[in-house]
Write a structure and sequence with these properties.
This protein has about 160 residues and is α+β, with helices and mostly antiparallel strands. The protein is built from two helices and nine strands. The chain has one domain. The strands form three sheets. A five-stranded antiparallel sheet has the order 1-6-3-4-2. The chain has a two-stranded parallel ribbon with strand order 5-7.
Length: about 160
Amino acid sequence: MRSPKTLPHRTALLTLLLAALLCLPYADALSQSYCSSENTGSGYDVDYDIYQSNGACHDTCVDNYAFAIVQYQNCWCSNYAPADTVDVSECNTDCPGYPDEQCGNSDQDLFGYIKLDRAASGTAGGSSSAASSTTSTTASSTTEESSVSFDRISYC
């Protein structure tokens, strides 16, 4: 016969297990938000890693940048979104450090952009190589607008 004293422990364990299972859909791999032939992080020193992944590049850039940019074993950081993009499905080269993720496409010279928590400073590339953002002023305030919008990612 089981002791009634073990019941609270089992209940707590089952509750913890259920909470962990509910979080599984949120534990997906980091994914690319943009795919582009432009590397807006080319001014940043490349971080080469034979085990590159979106997570490794994310960790390199997350504290100070808006984007982690991957292309196979290389990682760059940037605060600018690319002006010209192609469908994200074209950035389809498996990351060498985590093949469930894609790290750009070095055969087609495409860069995968992973959106981080910081706001982008604007866009770069396209018909002009200078970064662009627009500023509008009203009598009472100044606002900065960007032509880029981002979806927020929720984590459990």
